[in-house]
Design brief:
Layout lengths: L6 H12 L3 H16 L13 E4 L3 E2 L11 E7 L6 E6 L25 E4 L6 E6 L14 E9 L3 E9 L13 E3 L20 E2 L5 E5 L7 E6 L15 E4 L6 E5 L16 E9 L13 E9 L7 E4 L2 E3 L3 E7 L20 E6 L6 E4 L6 E6 L7 E9 L11 E9 L43 E2 L3 E3 L5 E7 L6 E8 L3 E2 L6 E2 L2 E9 L8 E7 L2 H10 L1 E10 L5 E8 L1
Parallel strand pairs: 2-8, 10-16, 18-24, 26-34
Antiparallel strand pairs: 1-3, 3-6, 4-5, 4-7, 7-8, 9-11, 11-14, 12-13, 12-15, 15-16, 17-19, 19-22, 20-21, 20-23, 23-24, 25-27, 27-32, 28-31, 28-33, 29-30, 33-34
C-alpha cells in the first residue's frame, strides 16, 4: 500500500524539482502525483482517538431544487481541538463543481477535496456535504450505490465512514450495533465492536449473504425481508421472504441465498446499487407457540454488477499430508486508491479456505490481475474419500470486502512418497568370482485399500413437480457404485395439509436408482414419484425448500438443498 509523504517531504519536493539530474526530475514527478492523490494520512486508517459516523446511512439520490435529497450528514468526536480536516468523497474520485478554498491550517496539497470541516474546541464535528454540488463529470457516480467520506487532517489522521445512495430507503436508517450483514459469521476476523470500523458490504450478483443478529428474544422466529418488498413465492405473514430462529441467547448467524428475481417494486435483490435486509420479529410463533418481543431492524448492503465474476476452483484430488491445488480468476481487490498515483492496481483479494468448513482457515492472496494459484494443505489425519472446501472469496480482517461463499468437492487420497531419483554408477566394475547368493524371503505387499464408493452429486438447482406427481432429478459425477438410494424431505418443519401440526415431510421415500458410470460431465436423469403427502404439500405451498439425499451403497452420502416448485 502506498503511504502519503509527510509535510517534510513536500518541502523536500521543491528542492527535488530544482535539481538538474534527470533521475531526480523523474522522482519529483512521481512524488508530486502521489502527493496530489494521497494527502497526509492517505487511504490508510490512522484514527487515533477519533470516531466518525454518517447519520444518514441511506442518502436520497440528489435532485436539483430538492433540499431533502443528496445531503450526507456526519458527526465525529475525539479530534484535536480546532483540528482542520479535508472531507473527501470516495477518496477524491468525486469532486464538487467549485473546488473549496483551503482554510488556515489546512494541508495545501488537497485539490481533490469535496469540502473542509473544523472541529470545535472539544474536538467534536457536526457537519454535512451536499451531493447536488457535484461537478457534471461526476454526476452519474452519485446516483446510487455504496460510497464513503474520508476526513484527513495533519495529526496525521485519516478516518472514513460508509453510506448508500438510493432514491428510497428504509424508515430506519441507522445501522444497529448488533445487526450486521457480513463478514462470514464463523471467521476469525475483527468486526462489529471488535473492528476499528464497520463497512457496508459490497457484493457481486449471486453472492451468499452472511448475517449476524443479536438482541432478540430466545428461540424467536425472525422474518427476513429485502428492501421492504414482497418477493415472489412469499409464504410467510407480512410479506416476509424467509425466516430464521434465534438461539437460547437471542442471537443467530448464517447465510442467505436471496432469489435473483424482482419483487413487488420490480427491483431484484441483486440489482446494482443499494439494498437492505429487514429483520422482523414478534409476529410469527415458534414451535412452542411464542412470538417473543416485537422488533424491526435493518442491515444495509450494496451490489456492484460491474465487479468481475469471482471464481475459485479446486483440483480433483490431493494427497493427505500434502495439499490440493487452488486456482481462481476475477479476484481483484477493491482499493481505496485514487487513479493517477503509483501502485494503484493494489494486490488481489484474500481467499480463505476451510476443509469441510470447519478446519483451520487457510488464507491465500490473489495476484494483481485477479488470478490465483495456491495450494491448500491437507492435514495428515484427514480421512480418505470425498471432502469439500468452503471458500470465502474476498474477506479477511477488514482488508477486503466480503464476497461469495462457495463450496467445492475433491478426493483425499493416500500419501505417496516422491520417487527417489538415483544417479547411475558409471565406475567400471572388477569381475568377481561367481558365488551362490542365498535367497532372501520377501515380505508380502499389503494390497491397497479398495476405493470406497463416493456419492453422485446433485446437479439440479431446483425441481419441478409434474401434474402426475413426479419430479426429475439430475445426477452428475457418478460414483463407482452402480446404484444409490435417493430420498427427498423438507428442509424445515412445515404445516401438513389438513392438519395444524408442523413436521418434516417426506416427499420422496428412499428409492434405489441406477447410476450411469462416466465422467463428471455425464449426467443421470432419474424420475422420482412424490408421496401423497408430498403432492398435497407442493400443491398448497407452490414452492418449498427440500433436502435431496443421495447415498451410494457402501459409500458416503451427499445432500443438497434445492427448491421444489409445484
Amino acid at each position: 500500500m502506498q503511504h502519503a509523504p509527510a509535510p517534510a517531504a513536500f518541502r523536500s519536493r521543491r528542492l527535488m524539482v530544482a535539481a538538474t539530474t534527470s533521475v531526480l526530475i523523474v522522482l519529483a514527478a512521481v512524488w508530486a502525483t502521489v502527493a496530489l492523490a494521497l494527502p497526509p494520512g492517505g487511504p490508510v486508517e490512522t484514527r487515533g482517538t477519533a470516531t466518525l459516523s454518517v447519520t444518514t446511512t441511506f442518502v436520497k439520490t440528489p435532485v436539483t431544487g430538492d433540499a431533502s435529497t443528496g445531503v450526507v450528514s456526519f458527526t465525529g468526536a475525539g479530534f484535536n481541538a480546532n483540528e482542520v480536516l479535508v472531507v473527501k468523497l470516495d477518496d477524491g474520485a468525486i469532486r464538487p463543481t467549485t473546488q473549496p478554498t483551503v482554510p488556515p491550517g489546512g494541508a495545501a496539497n488537497t485539490d481533490d477535496g469535496f469540502a473542509w470541516v473544523t472541529a470545535d474546541g472539544t474536538g467534536s464535528i457536526n457537519s454535512s456535504i451536499d451531493l447536488k454540488t457535484t461537478r457534471a463529470a461526476d454526476a452519474s457516480k452519485v446516483q446510487s450505490g455504496k460510497h464513503h467520506i474520508r476526513l484527513i487532517g495533519d495529526a496525521p489522521r485519516s478516518i472514513h465512514a460508509d453510506f448508500l445512495i438510493r432514491a428510497t430507503g428504509p424508515a430506519q436508517t441507522a445501522i444497529v450495533n448488533n445487526v450486521f450483514v457480513a463478514p462470514p459469521a464463523d471467521q476469525p476476523v475483527g468486526w462489529g465492536a471488535q473492528a476499528p470500523y464497520v463497512d457496508i458490504p459490497s457484493l457481486v450478483p449471486g453472492s451468499r449473504i452472511p448475517y449476524r443478529i443479536a438482541g432478540f428474544s430466545p428461540k424467536q422466529v425472525v422474518g427476513v425481508k429485502v428492501d421492504d418488498q414482497n418477493l415472489p413465492g412469499t409464504t410467510f405473514p407480512n410479506g416476509t421472504w424467509t425466516t430464521i430462529q434465534t438461539d437460547d441467547t437471542g442471537a443467530a448467524s448464517g447465510y442467505l441465498d436471496l432469489p435473483d428475481t424482482p419483487g413487488a417494486n420490480g427491483i431484484s435483490p441483486y440489482a446494482n446499487g443499494a439494498h437492505w435486509l429487514r429483520f422482523l420479529a414478534g409476529s410469527i410463533q415458534n414451535s412452542e407457540g411464542n412470538t417473543g418481543s416485537p422488533r424491526s431492524v435493518v442491515a444495509p448492503y450494496a451490489v456492484d454488477t460491474a465487479s468481475p465474476a469471482r471464481s475459485v476452483t479446486v483440483a480433483a484430488s490431493g494427497q493427505r499430508g500434502r495439499s490440493v491445488a487452488l486456482t481462481g480468476t476475477g479476484l481483484q481487490k477493491t482499493p481505496f486508491y485514487v487513479a493517477g498515483g503509483t501502485g494503484n492496481t493494489g494486490d488481489g483479494q484474500t481467499v480463505t479456505a476451510r476443509i469441510d468448513g470447519t478446519g483451520t482457515p487457510f488464507h491465500v492472496r490473489a495476484n494483481d490481475d485477479g488470478t490465483l494459484s495456491g495450494a491448500l494443505p491437507i492435514p495428515a489425519g484427514t480421512s480418505l474419500g470425498t471432502h469439500k472446501v468452503v471458500l470465502w472469496t474476498g474477506f479477511r480482517a477488514g482488508s477486503d470486502f466480503p464476497q461469495k461463499v462457495e463450496e467445492r468437492s475433491f478426493e483425499v487420497t493416500e500419501f505417496v512418497p516422491d520417487p527417489v531419483v538415483t544417479t547411475p554408477d558409471t565406475t567400471p566394475t572388477t569381475p568377481t568370482t561367481t558365488a551362490t547368493t542365498p535367497t532372501v524371503p520377501t515380505t508380502p505387499v499389503k494390497p491397497a485399500d479398495p476405493v470406497k464408493p463416493r456419492a453422485a452429486r446433485v446437479s439440479s438447482s431446483s425441481l419441478k413437480a409434474t401434474k402426475a406427481g413426479k419430479v426429475t432429478l439430475s445426477l452428475v459425477r457418478p460414483s463407482v457404485a452402480t446404484k444409490a438410494a435417493v430420498s427427498v424431505k423438507t428442509k424445515s418443519k412445515v404445516k401438513v395439509p389438513g392438519s395444524r401440526k408442523t413436521k418434516i415431510v417426506t416427499l420422496v421415500k428412499a428409492v434405489t436408482v441406477s447410476l450411469k458410470a462416466g465422467t463428471a460431465k455425464e449426467k443421470s436423469a432419474v424420475s422420482l414419484k412424490l408421496t401423497k403427502e408430498g403432492r398435497a404439500l407442493v400443491k398448497k405451498l407452490k414452492k418449498v425448500k427440500v433436502v435431496v439425499r443421495v447415498a451410494p451403497k457402501g459409500g458416503k452420502a451427499f445432500t443438497k438443498t434445492v427448491t421444489l416448485r409445484g
